[in-house]
Amino acid sequence: MRPGKLGQTTCSRASGSVPDRWENLRERLVDAARRRLGPDAPWAQRHIAHCPRCQARMAALGRVDLAMSLLKSQPHRLDLLRRANDAAIHMLSRRLRETPEADRLKQAQPEPSLAERWAGPQNALVNMAACLAVLALAKAGIFASLDQAHTRGRAAVKQYYNQAGQDIADEVFKT
Amino acid sequence: MSMFDRAIQYNLLGASVSCEAVEESQRWILTAMHRYGHELVTLLWRILGNEQDVCDAYQTTFLHLAHHEGGRKPRWVRAYLFRTASNVAISMLRQRIAERKTLSSMTPANEQEPTAEVDFDSRHLAESLLAHIAQLPEHLRNVITLRDLGELSYPEVARILGVSTGTARVYRCKAVQMLAMWVNDEENR
């Protein structure tokens, strides 16, 4: 989960207040429950391996995860923020358009958040998420459609590496 | 569809929001743009996947902000911006899907690209998911766009939508289940 950024919330609650501490405790409890009762728990994995219905459900959820990861991994040009700011500022009054703040916004580049800087390049995270989704797909379809999931997973990862560069994709997928 | 949604229907944007300039006293708009612009662009890009559309939706979002209650600053600017951006983007996405459907119905069947390709098509998978997200009920759609595409935390999503964190979690769970069901149905078709 991505931590909240300092100064970005408009909520009246102060950071570190009692409700926030309860919220953190709740998050931990939910995570602990998910580990023991969620689909990654060993007993659940054993059940899924023998239940075609659950396999189908897990495969469908894996597909949603994979699609979500693909959506997040689509890169855009670095100057998109600048162009968007420019378009929005263009609609403001002339006096507002000529302020130093407006000039700075027209030159703005996306800056990684503190969390992103700590976590490393975002693409690596998305890549990992995509790989996990592929693994989940392969696991869920182990009896029903392992070959299909394997082929699709491989194609998804290859497509991802193709975006990074053909030479990298060739290097990773050389046979 | 709520009144809010209706008000920002893509078709009505031209009529409801004029291009007139906002007051100079609205410098807080530039501050909001500086503070939340990057996150908004990311959210819009993930929903729309087209740079020109992102710029249009971003511009519309800030126009709505500038014209909010006659130029008054909303109480929670961040919440207002994210909800508006999400609704504007979904409206544009719906319109694009409708246009595509119209175009494909006009194109003769033998000229259409084969859709049942065996090869994995990531673009198709992502577009299909977006189309399903656009079909979700509003309360579920808001959570999935803010949480998954906007990558906001559950407490942030809950604050923006004015619900409890637990409710936001339940909504997301329901939304993912519905999406999985629809994606599965589409796969089996």
Largest sheet of chain B: none
Number of strands of chain A: 0
Subunit arrangement of the protein: heterodimer
Average pLDDT rating of chain A: 73
Question: What is the mean pLDDT of chain B?
Answer: 81
Would you mind describing this structure in some detail?
- The complex is a heterodimer of chains A (175) and B (189).
- With 175 residues, chain A is mainly α.
- Chain A has helices at residues 18-37, 42-50, 52-73, 80-90, 94-97, 100-106, 114-119, 122-140, 146-164, 166-172.
- Chain A starts with 17 loop residues before the first helix and ends with a helix.
- Mean pLDDT of chain A is 73; it is low at 1-15.
- In chain B, 72% of the residues lie in helices and 0% in strands.
- In chain B, helix 6 packs across helix 9 (165-188).
- Mean pLDDT of chain B is 81; it is low at 10-22 and 115-119.
Key attributes of the depicted protein:
heterodimer, A: 175 residues, mainly alpha, 10 helices, flat, disordered N terminus, B: mainly alpha
Summarize the structure.
The complex is a heterodimer of chains A (175) and B (189). With 175 residues, chain A is an all-alpha fold.
